[in-house]
Design goal:
membrane; transmembrane; Glutamate synthase [NADPH] large chain; transmembrane helix; glutamate synthase (NADPH) activity; mainly alpha; 2 domains
Length: 108
């Protein structure tokens, strides 16, 4: 193989590599290309996603406020229950003392 044949073979190999690269590039862009109608749909989907995220944020905020209100109400109810139980305990103790006093008066 002389010098001219080596140069011609190298040129053919480089040209084939160039053509294959160009074809691969064309295929990738052909299948990955986004059409205008799809672009509008993508914009619509992005807008819906944005609105859904905002709604989720509002819902989370509402739920946190509601949870705080319910927790506060629960604490108030528990405090009222403790006060009522203490009052009941005192009333029972007083009733027991009165029974004991009456029994002592009846015996004595």
């Amino acid at each position: 193989m002389n010098r001219t044949e080596i140069i011609a073979t190298t040129a053919v190999i480089l040209f084939v590599a160039f053509v294959l690269g160009w074809f691969a590039h064309w295929l990738v862009h052909r299948f990955a290309r986004v059409k205008q109608s799809e672009m509008g749909e993508l914009d619509k989907l992005a807008q819906q996603l944005h609105e859904a995220e905002e709604e989720r944020d509002r819902t989370v905020t509402y739920m946190q406020q509601r949870e705080a209100e319910m927790s506060n109400q629960l604490q108030q109810t528990e405090a009222e229950l403790r006060a009522a139980m203490e009052g009941l305990r005192e009333a029972r103790q007083e009733a027991e003392e009165l029974r004991a006093y009456i029994e002592r008066q009846n015996q004595g």
